Automatic annotation (TrEMBL):
This is Protein GrpE. Residues 1-46 are annotated as: Disordered. Keywords: Chaperone, Coiled coil, Cytoplasm, Stress response. GO terms for cellular component: cytoplasm. PROSITE patterns: GRPE (PS01071). Residues 1-21 have a biased composition (Basic and acidic residues). Residues 33-44 have a biased composition (Low complexity). It comes from Nonomuraea zeae.
C-alpha cells in the first residue's frame, strides 16, 4: 500500500457485491460484470408469475386461517367469561332473596341497607336483572308455576303473585320467576276422556 501524505496507510475498499448497484448486472468472481444467461424472457416471466400466484394464495390462506382462529378465540373467551359470571351470580341469588325479604319486612335499615344497595348495584353492573311482576302474562319459559287457581279477573293465564323473582344475565335465564298463576274461570276443565258418542 502506498503511504498517504501524513504517513499512514490508506484503507483499500474492494466492492465484492455480486450485482452491480448501478446497472443491475451480475458480476463475476473478479468483480467484472457478466451478462446474465440468455433465457427466453417469456418463460422466465411465466415461471415468476406462477410462483407469485402460488405465494399469494398461500399468504391469503394463512391470513384467513389466522383471522378465523382469532375470531374463535375471542368468541370462546367471551363464552368462558359469561359462564364464569353466570356461575358466580347464581351463587349470590339466595343472598338477594334474603335482602328482598328483609326489605319486605322493613328490616333493611342503616348500614345494612347501604351494603344491600351497593351489592345490588354491582350485580346490575355485571348484567344481572330481575324479572317477574304481579300481573305479567304467564310464560312457562321464564315462569315456574308453584300455585294454580281460577279467577274472573284475568283473561289469560296470569301471574297473580310473585313468590320469588326470576333473574337473567342478558338473554339467559339464571332462575325462573316462581309465581302463583290464575286462569280465567270460564276456561273449560281439562278432560282426559274422549267425546262420548
Amino acid at each position: 500500500m502506498p503511504p498517504s501524505e501524513n504517513g499512514h496507510d490508506e484503507p483499500v475498499i474492494r466492492d465484492n457485491r455480486k450485482i452491480d448497484p448501478e446497472t443491475g448486472q451480475v458480476r463475476g468472481a473478479s468483480g467484472v460484470q457478466q451478462e446474465a444467461p440468455a433465457e427466453a424472457p417469456q418463460a422466465q416471466d411465466g415461471e415468476l408469475a406462477a410462483q407469485l400466484a402460488e405465494r399469494t394464495a398461500d399468504l391469503q390462506r394463512l391470513q384467513a386461517e389466522y383471522t378465523n382462529y382469532r375470531r374463535r378465540v375471542e368468541r370462546d373467551r367471551a363464552a368462558v367469561r359469561e359462564q364464569s359470571v353466570a356461575g358466580a351470580l347464581v351463587e349470590l341469588l339466595p343472598v338477594l332473596d334474603d335482602i328482598g325479604r328483609a326489605r319486605d319486612h322493613g328490616e333493611l335499615t342503616g348500614g345494612f341497607a347501604k351494603v344491600a344497595e351497593s351489592l345490588e348495584a354491582a350485580l346490575t353492573k355485571l348484567g344481572l336483572s330481575a324479572f317477574g311482576q304481579k300481573g305479567d302474562p304467564f310464560d312457562p319459559t321464564v315462569h315456574e308455576a308453584l300455585m294454580h287457581s281460577y279467577s274472573p279477573e284475568v283473561t289469560e293465564p296470569t301471574a297473580i303473585e310473585v313468590l320469588q323473582p326470576g333473574y337473567r344475565l342478558g338473554d339467559r335465564v339464571l332462575r325462573p320467576a316462581r309465581v302463583a298463576v290464575a286462569e280465567p274461570e270460564d276456561a273449560p276443565p281439562a278432560s282426559n276422556d274422549d267425546d262420548d258418542n
